[in-house]
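Q: I'm building a small set of examples for a reading group on sequence design. Run inverse folding on the following structure and report the sequence directly after it, with nothing in between.
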């Protein structure tokens, strides 16, 4: 008998995932996934520009490897390390869901932001249980 796991009304127990819509056999599940939809939230700071530490580091490494010319090229390459630039796109999480599917049915559930980590762990537990169940059959 497998250990029972629960998350927001979902119960994983003895070869079955119990959902509010009914039971889904682990042998029939084709998908058990935690999904995060990310969308563009407009424009905000990006990272690109000049860093004095990277310039010096690039020059030192380039000089050690290739002499004077390497120091110049290394310093120039090091100067392209990042800092904020306004106007680049920002991204945000639009929704988080748990999705479970069989050949004939599916179930999805919206997850509150404060439950994301628990949802991810539950989806991983279902995936592991699916693999164990299918291996023993």
């Amino acid at each position: 008998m497998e250990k029972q796991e629960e998350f927001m009304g979902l119960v994983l127990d003895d070869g079955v995932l119990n959902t509010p819509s009914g039971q889904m056999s682990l042998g029939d599940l084709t998908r058990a996934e935690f999904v995060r939809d990310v969308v563009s939230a407009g424009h905000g700071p990006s990272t690109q520009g000049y860093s004095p530490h990277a310039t010096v580091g690039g020059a030192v490494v380039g000089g050690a490897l290739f002499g004077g010319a390497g120091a110049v090229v290394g310093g120039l390459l090091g100067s392209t390390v990042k800092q904020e630039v306004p106007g680049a796109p920002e991204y945000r999480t639009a929704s988080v869901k748990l999705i479970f599917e069989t050949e004939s049915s599916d179930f999805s559930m919206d997850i509150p932001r404060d439950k994301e980590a628990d949802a991810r762990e539950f989806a991983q537990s279902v995936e592991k249980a699916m693999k164990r169940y299918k291996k023993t059959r």
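The longest helix spans residues 52-78.
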